[in-house]
Protein backbone atom coordinates (compact mmCIF):
# COMPACT_ATOMS: atom_id res chain seq x y z
CA UNK A 1 0.00 0.00 0.00
CA UNK A 2 1.36 3.38 -0.90
CA UNK A 3 1.98 5.83 1.92
CA UNK A 4 0.12 8.47 -0.07
CA UNK A 5 -3.12 6.64 0.73
CA UNK A 6 -2.53 7.00 4.45
CA UNK A 7 -1.33 10.58 4.28
CA UNK A 8 -4.20 11.92 2.23
CA UNK A 9 -7.01 9.95 3.84
CA UNK A 10 -6.26 10.82 7.42
CA UNK A 11 -5.50 14.37 6.42
CA UNK A 12 -9.10 14.55 5.30
CA UNK A 13 -10.48 13.04 8.49
CA UNK A 14 -8.55 15.02 11.09
CA UNK A 15 -8.34 18.29 9.21
CA UNK A 16 -12.12 18.16 9.33
CA UNK A 17 -11.77 17.76 13.11
CA UNK A 18 -14.72 17.62 15.49
CA UNK A 19 -17.11 14.68 15.72
CA UNK A 20 -16.98 12.38 12.70
CA UNK A 21 -18.38 9.05 11.54
CA UNK A 22 -16.05 7.18 9.22
CA UNK A 23 -16.85 3.92 7.46
CA UNK A 24 -13.80 2.36 5.81
CA UNK A 25 -14.69 -0.48 3.43
CA UNK A 26 -12.17 -2.79 1.79
CA UNK A 27 -13.71 -5.04 -0.86
CA UNK A 28 -11.42 -7.78 -2.18
CA UNK A 29 -12.28 -9.74 -5.33
CA UNK A 30 -11.22 -13.23 -6.40
CA UNK A 31 -8.27 -11.86 -8.38
CA UNK A 32 -6.74 -10.35 -5.25
CA UNK A 33 -7.59 -6.82 -6.36
CA UNK A 34 -9.41 -4.49 -4.02
CA UNK A 35 -11.49 -1.35 -3.75
CA UNK A 36 -10.90 0.82 -0.70
CA UNK A 37 -13.49 3.44 0.17
CA UNK A 38 -14.27 5.91 2.94
CA UNK A 39 -17.66 7.34 3.78
CA UNK A 40 -17.08 10.37 5.99
CA UNK A 41 -19.81 12.26 7.81
CA UNK A 42 -18.82 15.15 10.06
CA UNK A 43 -20.56 17.63 12.31
CA UNK A 44 -21.87 20.89 10.89
CA UNK A 45 -19.31 22.92 12.84
CA UNK A 46 -16.48 20.76 11.52
CA UNK A 47 -17.88 21.13 8.02
CA UNK A 48 -17.65 24.92 8.24
CA UNK A 49 -14.04 24.64 9.46
CA UNK A 50 -13.15 22.19 6.69
CA UNK A 51 -14.61 24.20 3.82
CA UNK A 52 -11.37 26.14 3.40
CA UNK A 53 -9.40 22.91 2.91
CA UNK A 54 -11.83 20.88 0.81
CA UNK A 55 -10.62 21.99 -2.63
CA UNK A 56 -6.97 21.36 -1.75
CA UNK A 57 -7.70 17.94 -0.29
CA UNK A 58 -9.94 16.95 -3.19
CA UNK A 59 -7.17 17.83 -5.65
CA UNK A 60 -4.63 15.73 -3.75
CA UNK A 61 -7.02 12.79 -3.54
CA UNK A 62 -7.69 12.87 -7.28
CA UNK A 63 -3.96 13.14 -7.96
CA UNK A 64 -3.49 9.94 -5.95
CA UNK A 65 -6.13 8.14 -8.03
CA UNK A 66 -9.15 8.54 -5.75
CA UNK A 67 -12.59 9.55 -6.88
CA UNK A 68 -14.27 12.05 -4.57
CA UNK A 69 -18.02 12.45 -4.28
CA UNK A 70 -18.75 15.50 -2.13
CA UNK A 71 -22.37 14.93 -1.21
CA UNK A 72 -22.47 18.03 1.01
CA UNK A 73 -20.15 20.14 3.17
CA UNK A 74 -20.42 17.44 5.84
CA UNK A 75 -20.56 14.24 3.79
CA UNK A 76 -17.96 12.65 1.47
CA UNK A 77 -17.51 9.36 -0.35
CA UNK A 78 -13.91 8.64 -1.37
CA UNK A 79 -12.87 5.58 -3.35
CA UNK A 80 -9.86 4.02 -5.06
CA UNK A 81 -9.41 0.80 -7.00
CA UNK A 82 -6.20 -1.06 -6.13
CA UNK A 83 -4.73 -3.59 -8.53
CA UNK A 84 -3.05 -6.78 -7.36
CA UNK A 85 0.43 -5.25 -7.30
CA UNK A 86 -0.70 -2.47 -4.99
CA UNK A 87 -2.40 -4.84 -2.54
CA UNK A 88 0.34 -7.47 -2.32
CA UNK A 89 3.49 -5.33 -2.57
CA UNK A 90 4.08 -3.08 0.42
CA UNK A 91 7.09 -1.61 2.20
CA UNK A 92 5.23 -2.01 5.49
CA UNK A 93 5.85 -5.16 7.52
CA UNK A 94 2.62 -6.44 9.15
CA UNK A 95 4.41 -7.41 12.37
CA UNK A 96 5.63 -3.83 12.82
CA UNK A 97 2.01 -2.76 13.13
CA UNK A 98 0.83 -5.59 15.36
CA UNK A 99 -0.62 -7.70 12.54
CA UNK A 100 0.09 -11.44 12.49
CA UNK A 101 -0.87 -13.62 9.53
CA UNK A 102 -0.70 -17.42 9.84
CA UNK A 103 -1.39 -19.94 7.12
CA UNK A 104 -2.25 -23.61 7.71
CA UNK A 105 -2.39 -25.66 4.51
CA UNK A 106 -4.13 -28.92 3.79
CA UNK A 107 -4.25 -30.78 0.48
CA UNK A 108 -7.18 -28.89 -1.04
CA UNK A 109 -7.48 -25.76 1.09
CA UNK A 110 -5.65 -23.42 3.38
CA UNK A 111 -6.85 -21.80 6.57
CA UNK A 112 -5.62 -18.26 7.02
CA UNK A 113 -5.83 -16.37 10.30
CA UNK A 114 -5.30 -12.65 10.57
CA UNK A 115 -4.82 -11.28 14.09
CA UNK A 116 -4.29 -7.55 14.54
CA UNK A 117 -3.42 -6.05 17.93
CA UNK A 118 -3.97 -2.39 17.21
CA UNK A 119 -2.19 0.05 19.52
CA UNK A 120 -2.15 3.36 17.72
CA UNK A 121 -0.77 5.25 20.72
CA UNK A 122 2.27 2.96 20.90
CA UNK A 123 3.01 3.36 17.21
CA UNK A 124 2.42 7.09 17.42
CA UNK A 125 4.96 7.53 20.21
CA UNK A 126 7.48 5.55 18.19
CA UNK A 127 6.95 7.38 14.92
CA UNK A 128 6.13 10.89 16.16
CA UNK A 129 8.01 11.23 19.44
CA UNK A 130 7.98 15.04 19.40
CA UNK A 131 4.18 15.42 19.31
CA UNK A 132 1.75 14.37 22.03
CA UNK A 133 -0.72 11.63 21.15
CA UNK A 134 -4.02 13.41 20.23
CA UNK A 135 -6.25 11.06 22.18
CA UNK A 136 -9.11 13.53 22.65
CA UNK A 137 -9.32 14.23 18.93
CA UNK A 138 -9.34 10.55 18.02
CA UNK A 139 -11.98 9.78 20.64
CA UNK A 140 -14.43 11.93 18.67
CA UNK A 141 -14.18 9.72 15.58
CA UNK A 142 -16.51 6.73 15.27
CA UNK A 143 -14.54 4.44 12.95
CA UNK A 144 -16.14 1.41 11.34
CA UNK A 145 -14.01 -1.01 9.33
CA UNK A 146 -15.66 -3.39 6.85
CA UNK A 147 -13.70 -6.17 5.15
CA UNK A 148 -15.66 -7.68 2.26
CA UNK A 149 -14.14 -10.96 1.02
CA UNK A 150 -15.34 -12.94 -2.04
CA UNK A 151 -15.79 -16.10 0.06
CA UNK A 152 -18.24 -16.93 2.83
CA UNK A 153 -16.16 -19.61 4.58
CA UNK A 154 -15.46 -17.38 7.57
CA UNK A 155 -14.31 -19.13 10.73
CA UNK A 156 -13.50 -17.81 14.20
CA UNK A 157 -13.61 -14.00 14.40
CA UNK A 158 -14.42 -11.10 16.70
CA UNK A 159 -16.27 -8.95 14.18
CA UNK A 160 -19.37 -7.10 15.36
CA UNK A 161 -21.29 -8.73 12.54
CA UNK A 162 -20.69 -11.22 9.71
CA UNK A 163 -22.81 -11.40 6.56
CA UNK A 164 -21.44 -13.97 4.13
CA UNK A 165 -17.88 -12.82 3.49
CA UNK A 166 -18.45 -9.34 4.90
CA UNK A 167 -17.05 -8.64 8.37
CA UNK A 168 -17.70 -5.43 10.28
CA UNK A 169 -15.75 -4.03 13.24
CA UNK A 170 -16.12 -0.89 15.34
CA UNK A 171 -12.55 0.32 15.82
CA UNK A 172 -11.69 2.79 18.61
CA UNK A 173 -8.82 4.99 17.48
CA UNK A 174 -7.94 6.34 20.93
CA UNK A 175 -7.24 3.03 22.71
CA UNK A 176 -6.00 -0.51 22.15
CA UNK A 177 -8.18 -2.95 20.24
CA UNK A 178 -7.98 -6.34 18.57
CA UNK A 179 -9.32 -7.58 15.27
CA UNK A 180 -9.07 -11.19 14.14
CA UNK A 181 -10.68 -13.59 11.71
CA UNK A 182 -10.11 -16.96 10.09
CA UNK A 183 -11.08 -17.95 6.57
CA UNK A 184 -10.70 -21.14 4.57
CA UNK A 185 -9.91 -20.72 0.88
CA UNK A 186 -8.62 -22.84 -2.01
CA UNK A 187 -4.84 -23.17 -2.02
CA UNK A 188 -4.49 -21.16 -5.22
CA UNK A 189 -6.02 -18.04 -3.71
CA UNK A 190 -4.41 -15.36 -1.58
CA UNK A 191 -7.48 -13.20 -1.05
CA UNK A 192 -7.48 -13.40 2.74
CA UNK A 193 -3.81 -12.43 2.93
CA UNK A 194 -4.66 -9.35 0.88
CA UNK A 195 -7.39 -8.55 3.39
CA UNK A 196 -4.92 -8.90 6.24
CA UNK A 197 -2.46 -6.53 4.62
CA UNK A 198 -5.19 -3.96 4.14
CA UNK A 199 -6.07 -4.11 7.84
CA UNK A 200 -2.75 -2.29 8.35
CA UNK A 201 -4.26 0.69 6.55
CA UNK A 202 -6.25 1.58 9.65
CA UNK A 203 -3.08 2.03 11.68
CA UNK A 204 -1.11 3.77 8.96
CA UNK A 205 -4.00 6.09 8.23
CA UNK A 206 -4.03 7.45 11.75
CA UNK A 207 -0.28 8.00 11.97
CA UNK A 208 0.20 9.78 8.65
CA UNK A 209 -2.96 11.82 8.83
CA UNK A 210 -2.25 13.32 12.23
CA UNK A 211 1.35 14.12 11.29
CA UNK A 212 0.19 16.07 8.24
CA UNK A 213 -2.51 17.83 10.25
CA UNK A 214 -0.03 18.90 12.96
CA UNK A 215 2.45 20.24 10.40
CA UNK A 216 -0.30 22.30 8.74
CA UNK A 217 -1.16 23.97 12.07
CA UNK A 218 2.46 25.05 12.72
UniProtKB/TrEMBL annotation:
Residues 1-20 form the signal peptide. Keywords: Membrane, Signal, Transmembrane, Transmembrane helix. CDD domains: TM_EGFR-like (cd12087). This is Secreted protein with hydrophobic anchor, putative. The chain crosses the membrane at residues 191-210. It comes from the Bacteria.
Amino acid sequence: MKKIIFTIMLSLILVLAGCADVTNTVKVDKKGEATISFDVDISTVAGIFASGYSNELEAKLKEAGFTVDKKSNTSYHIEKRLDKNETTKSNMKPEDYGVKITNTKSFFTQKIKVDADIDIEKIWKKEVADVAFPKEVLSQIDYTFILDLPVSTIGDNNAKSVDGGKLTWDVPLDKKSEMYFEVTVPNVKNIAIVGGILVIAIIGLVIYLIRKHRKKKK
